């Protein structure tokens, strides 16, 4: 009976160590993936913000230029707004699913790799 207890005790200690190691490994992998996804999101967010500011400035310049050509400055803003309305409708009706699928695939591939 004593032999069985001495045989099982090291086995239980090894199982406990394995469980602790597995838990630590899962925790470290989770932290790695979370930091990777967040850092990618933040860096892309900053780039998108900078590009958006540039785009706003260019759009204001184009609207003022068109307004100067058309005679009234607000006509240029109407033209630019109409252009973006048409682009938005095209994106929504024809490319919505494609864009959604690409973003989902990108997030899934980042989480799994």
Structural write-up:
With 113 residues, the protein is mostly helical. It is built from two helices and no strands. It has helices spanning 2-70, 73-112. α1 runs antiparallel to α2. The mean pLDDT is 88.
Describe the structure using short key phrases.
mainly alpha, 113 residues, 96% helix
Count up the helices: 2
The overall pLDDT, averaged over residues, is 88
Q: In oligomeric terms, what are we looking at?
A: single chain
Radius of gyration: 29 Å
Which H/E pattern describes the elements? HH
User: What share of residues are in beta strands?
Assistant: under 5%
Which regions are unreliable across 5 or more consecutive residues at pLDDT < 50? Answer: none
> How far from one another are the termini?
49 Å
Topology at a glance:
Elements: H1 2-70, H2 73-112
Helix pairs in contact: 1-2
Quick overview:
This protein is mainly α. Helices cover 96% and strands 0% of the residues.
């Amino acid at each position: 009976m004593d032999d069985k207890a001495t045989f099982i005790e090291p086995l239980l200690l090894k199982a406990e160590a394995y469980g602790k190691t597995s838990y630590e490994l899962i925790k470290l992998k989770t932290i790695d993936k979370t930091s990777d996804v967040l850092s990618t999101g933040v860096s892309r967010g900053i780039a998108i913000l900078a590009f958006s500011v540039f785009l706003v400035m260019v759009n204001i310049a184009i609207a003022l230029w068109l307004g100067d050509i058309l005679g009234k400055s607000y006509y240029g803003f109407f033209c630019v707004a109409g252009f973006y309305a048409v682009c938005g409708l095209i994106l929504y009706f024809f490319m919505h699913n494609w864009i959604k699928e690409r973003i989902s695939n990108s997030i899934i591939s980042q989480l799994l790799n």
